[in-house]
Amino acid sequence: MINPNEDTEWNDILRAHGVLPPKEPKPEEIDPNDLLPTREEILEQSTLDELDELLEDDDRRVLEQYRQKRIAEMQALARKEKYGSLITIDETNFVREVTEASKECAVVVYMCRDSVPQCRIVTEHMKKLAERFKATKFVKYDMRAYPDRNFPTLLIYQEGQLKDQLIAFKGTDFKTIALYLHSLDVIKIEKDEVFDKKDNSSSESDYDSDDY
């Protein structure tokens, strides 16, 4: 005996010729998630107290997301801002401290000699720059064969290469040096960055804040 409800090829042929009635459609499967109320429906049906609780939950969630983002940003900044002082180097460690290090961050090589009066002024500025811009490496280097007339000199290393140099520059103004480094993307000066008068203070008064 033929079972008209069986899903067989023969029954399909009989249905095609009208011998058997068409199959009844299967009930549509319902996704359980479709039965859940939408957020709009929840809000519409909530009391004022329930709405306050929902808003507090949302605020906490947003604040927690912002908090985690800020923590990640601060940790990334801390990994970059690892210097903060003017480091003295010599010929024996120049490649490691400058060339190799510049593959990870910008390196400012401040070539000076303490016996050169102008160097005594610029050294104080370089110390302050190193303290303020900790993501950039500042090193002090007295090359023995370098003539006094070429001091002070700045060498800018980035990506393992010498990118710029400033030889025997006249400027002793902290702000001018900072803006020069900023123009090369060696340091980042914010729009509201404040340069105090004390940044340019020095016991030496024989030199003006000339431009380069």
From TrEMBL:
Pfam families: Phosducin. GO terms for cellular component: cytoplasm. InterPro entries: Phosducin-like_chap/apop_reg, Phosducin_thioredoxin-like_dom, Thioredoxin-like_sf. Residues 38-168 form the Phosducin domain. The lineage of its organism: Eukaryota, Fungi, Fungi incertae sedis, Chytridiomycota, Chytridiomycota incertae sedis. One of its GO terms (biological process) is protein folding. This is Thioredoxin-like protein. Gene3D superfamilies: Glutaredoxin.
